[in-house]
Amino acid sequence: MSSSHPLALSYPPPDVHWVDHLPEPALLVDAARDVIITVNSSFARMLGTKRGNLTGTSCTRLFDGQRPLLIAFTQETLFRGTAWSRDFHLKHRNGRTVELEISAARAGEAEEQQVLLLLRDWQLLRTLRERHETNHYHRGGLLEWRRVAELFKDMERANQLILHAVGEGIYGVDAEGRTTFLNPAGERMLGWRGDELMGRVIHRVVHHSHEDGSLFPLKDCPIYAAFRDGSVHSIDEDWFWRKDGSGFPVEYTSTPIMDGGHPVGAVVVFRDVSQRKEAQQELHQALEEVESLKHKLEIENAYLQEELSGEYHFHEIVGQSDALKSIMRRIGLVAPTDANVLITGESGTGKELIARAIHQASDRRDRPLIRVNCAAIPKDLFESEFFGHTRGAFTGAVSDRVGRFELADGGTLFLDEVGEIPLELQGKLLRVLQDQQFERVGENHTRSVSVRVIAATNRDLKTEVREKQFREDLYFRLNVFPIESVPLRQRIEDIPLLAQEFLERACVRFNRPHLTLRISDVETLKAYHWPGNVRELENVIERQVITADRYLDFDLTGRDQGGLSAPEDEQPPARHSGTEVMTDKDIQTLERNNLVRALTATAGRVSGADGAAAMVGMKPTTLSSRLKKLNINPARFKTTPPESNA
Fold first, then answer.
1. Of the residues 98, 127, 156, which one is the last residue of a structural domain?
2. Max Cα-Cα span within the chain
3. Beta bridge pairs of residue 249
4. Are 347 and 532 within 8 A, CB to CB?
């Protein structure tokens, strides 16, 4: 509708008098010119004015302050043909606002853009509807009231069925605490019939005292509190008394009954929790037994740990040399932290064992230790291996893959042979170490992790940094706490313990009978310089277990050059410490005298760091069995030194 146009026609035209015959207030509007063509008498009365005052005036001025809404409504009518709204109002001549319900329709020819508006007083409509509903109920009369009464009877019957079917006890009380009803489940639990409790103050009958027999004052009862404060009270532990004088534990909910905003009573729903209490008591006893067994196991575990420590084990690391003890101390220092560790040393010195020891002694021990052999990763798969990839990220990526960093989240990532990572890929690794964030290959989503990194290498990274073969910033990021894994030739005193450990493992692994490591064998092993370190020692022991008949026969000549021994049929015959062949009795005498010297030196102590077992390179249990077989009592050496012939 336009806001104002000069009158080009005389209103009303002779063909619009049909508006006068409409039963509701109506006006016909020329939407193109924003002019009221005509109104009927009902509309004029609605506004308390005359028809002549409205015909030919602006429609938007009539709906003052509603012009945008009126324009949208008119356009909807012209487009759809009809429209309806309750968003309009008009002002009566006396100032009263008339809330309207308007129905609109397009009138006349389409090009004329005439709109017919039928208006209704919303307040008057509501009054008429209420009057109609009242008349309807009056006409229903007694028949309707009877139907309602029957409905309430059916509802009461249904409620009674529910009260009888429910498994919990239910009773009601009025504002004075007197019983108003009790359902059958409540009768069974309390031992009282409903008619026996009706009208009685139920607290004095079933809730008068606590479990221990002490008085439960009425003023402290949570059930009564419900209709005093109008709140729901739920109690997990309480006590009710039966008619026969016995009691039982209960839990209940007391809900107030409100009338006009005021509490007039309460409904109590309660249940017998005796079985649950018994189950809780049994569970408590079971937990106490478990705790007792746990304490016992802890004591036994402490004993076993002490036994293991006596054999110089530390997370599978075996030895007692000063060099190894220094490594243990450094492991103990760095393990509780999240600092990155760089383990250096020759191949075969046990760098992975050191990494595992650090992880097992850290707070991350419950999460995985993920090992990555950096030397075995192709250059073009480096990112996928470390960070993962999404499906279709590259040719062959047929599914999503989780990278090693994501697998190690919350745990430890062990980068073995870290010096083998290509220089052009080291920057990507550095970024993850700095930010603990990465993106999978083919994905824009940044993922965050919490990973501790332990790296190991047998290369001289300092030299490679100077030669620009390894990034300096990555080196310093990894080398927060350095640990050097010393070669076996620098801890010769560990060779007997290691050899004995590997021998026992190999016998079990290859299902061979128990073999003995002789003194001459130990001396032979200690004389060799072991370029392959601990790994080479383990391989030598395993080969001997496979090929030996009754005794081990170590011939390490020829291993210095290629690290491999000559074929067995080319090896020279077994050597002995003397020039003559020793008999079995001579060997037993030699062993007996050796054990006696060990017991003499340790004052009869078998196990422990300074015991005879450690001195001769045996387990304490093995030594004890050997002493028993030779009829040697270690207790004799604690006070009086024995004779040389025992």
1. 127
2. 151
3. 239
4. yes
Parallel/antiparallel/unpaired status of strands 401-402 and 388-389:
antiparallel
Length of the chain: 646
Q: Which helix (H) or strand (E) holds 370?
A: strand 369-373
Q: Supply 496's token pair.
A: 């007997």
What are phi and psi for residue 211, nearest 5 degrees? -60, -35
543 domain residue, yes or no: no
Residue 159 CA to its chain's centroid (Å): 45
**45 found inside a domain:** yes
Contacts for 512-519: CB closer than 8 Å, 24+ residues apart:
512/545, 512/546, 512/548, 515/544, 515/545, 515/548, 515/551, 515/552, 516/551, 516/552, 517/552, 517/617, 518/551, 518/552, 519/594
Strand 97-107, strand 89-91: pairing: antiparallel
DSSP string, 375-387: GGS-GGGHHHHHH
233, β-bridge pairs:
254
Q: Which residue has the tokens 């009365």?
A: 45
- What Cα–Cα distance (Å) separates residue 246 from each residue in 23, 59, 276, 339, 520? 80, 86, 18, 66, 84
Q: Are 589 and 595 in contact (CB under 8 A)?
A: no
Q: Which residue has the tokens 């054990």?
A: 595
Rounded Cα gap, residues 530 and 557, in angstroms: 12
3-state secondary structure of 348: coil
Contact 462, 324 (CB under 8 A): no
> What sign does the dihedral 6-12-15-19 (CA atoms) show?
positive
Q: Which domain holds residue 188?
A: 166-272
| Helix (H), strand (E) at residue 599 | helix 584-601
| pLDDT tens by residue, 211-270 | 888 898 888 888 888 877 888 888 888 899 998 989 899 999 888 888 777 888 888 999
How far apart are the C-alpha atoms of 168 and 270, rounded to whole Å? 6
- pTM for the model stands at 0.42
Residue 30 tokens, joined = 């020329």
**Which two three-digit tokens encode residue 76?**
């909807």
Domain count, the chain: 4
How far apart CA 365 and CA 357 sit, in angstroms, is 10
DSSP H stretches of helix in 532-583: 533-547, 559-562
- The two tokens of residue 254 are 């007391």
Cα atoms in the Cβ-side hemisphere of radius 13 Å centred on 202: 32
- Same-domain status, 80 and 209: no
Chain mean pLDDT for the chain: 81
Q: Read off the pLDDT of residues 195-206 as tens digits, 9 standing for 90 and up.
A: 888 889 888 888
